[in-house]
Specification:
It is a single chain. With 125 residues, the chain is α/β, with parallel strands linked by helices. Helices cover 41% and strands 19% of the residues. The protein is globular, with a radius of gyration of 13 Å. It starts with a strand and ends in a 7-residue tail after the last helix. The structure holds magnesium ion (MG).
Length: 125
Amino acid sequence: MKALIVDDAKVVRVTLARMMGQLGYEAVKAEDGRQALDAMAEHPDVDVVMLDWNMPVMNGYDFLVALRGMAQHATHPKVIMVTTETGMPSMLKALAAGADEYIMKPFDQDMVAGKLAMVGLEAAG
Ligand SMILES: [Mg+2]
């Protein structure tokens, strides 16, 4: 199982990569939406994207729209927003654009494992 972790904050990338590693996932990291699109081209077998919203260059929402616009990624991989943008309008906007779940920062490993289960992904370890 492979996870793409997209966040402009290094501490979040490192923390999420460690948590996903403990859940049995190989972690690929990107710092913005543009890098994430490049990562998806390199790793089309990614099972889940853990996606920040607010990032420079290309934000998480614009990445999500671009990803779901690709025929091979219309429903795969799963996308879990990991963000402080937790107002209902933002959540509904992301879900309408193809996000599968939402995690509010700050988060812990139990929350991550719970959301993975909610989108049908078991801990792989
Ligand atoms: Mg950010």
